Amino acid sequence: MKVANFLVALAVLALASSFATAYDPSPLQDFCVATNASKSAVFLNGKFCKDPTRVTADDFFFSGLNVAGDTSNQLGVHINIIDADVIPGLNTNGITLVRIDYAANGGLNPPHNHPRAAEILTVLKGTVYAGFVTSNPDHRLFAKVLKPGDVFLFPFGLIHFQLNIGKTPAVALAALTSQNPGVNTIANAVFGSDPPINPNVLTKAFHLDKDLVSKLQKEQWVDPSESDSYN
């Protein structure tokens, strides 16, 4: 009886472990190239799979990641997202690639988190101050000044940021561990929600004057994840 109970407990732990590690569904075939044509296609992971006999090398290809993005916005940042909508062959592979351009003297990818992914950042050009903050109760800051060739990891779901502290534009390449990592920009969510959060909540939570909270809620908050279409 004790052996049986042990085996049941072991099975439950194994099942829980599989749920905890499988954030994106694992593919059950070589590839599932995304397509909008539903005729004679298989629906998988939110997208239709292209007929494998019609798949070409172009379904796994993208050109243009070397093109600099326009950083003439409030934050001085441009984010070019390469996902399954851009490279259809990425579908079911649990990967998103991002090019980030930062304006000189303060281009900022503001504090945000990805609810479904970890992120690894590689600086290609410039000098970037990057970091993340741990969850309750410690709120420890881990941050580094990164130069070309430096790599920094933002753990799964934690709030993180990047700031160009150099006098020239900066460029970084990021890879995220999900086909659909999601992004939640903290300031936008808190002060730019629709409809607005009751100012009394934010006044007390952030120790701010109520007039300042009302002013912040009237600001136009830039969403860096929507900076231009894909190049």
TrEMBL record:
SMART domains: Cupin_1. Disulfide bonds join 32-49. Keywords: Apoplast, Disulfide bond, Glycoprotein, Manganese, Metal-binding, Secreted, Signal. Oxalate binds at residues 109, 114, 119. Mn(2+) binds at residues 112, 114, 119, 160. PANTHER family: GERMIN-LIKE PROTEIN SUBFAMILY 3 MEMBER 3 (PTHR31238). May play a role in plant defense. Probably has no oxalate oxidase activity even if the active site is conserved. This is Germin-like protein. It comes from Manihot esculenta (Cassava).
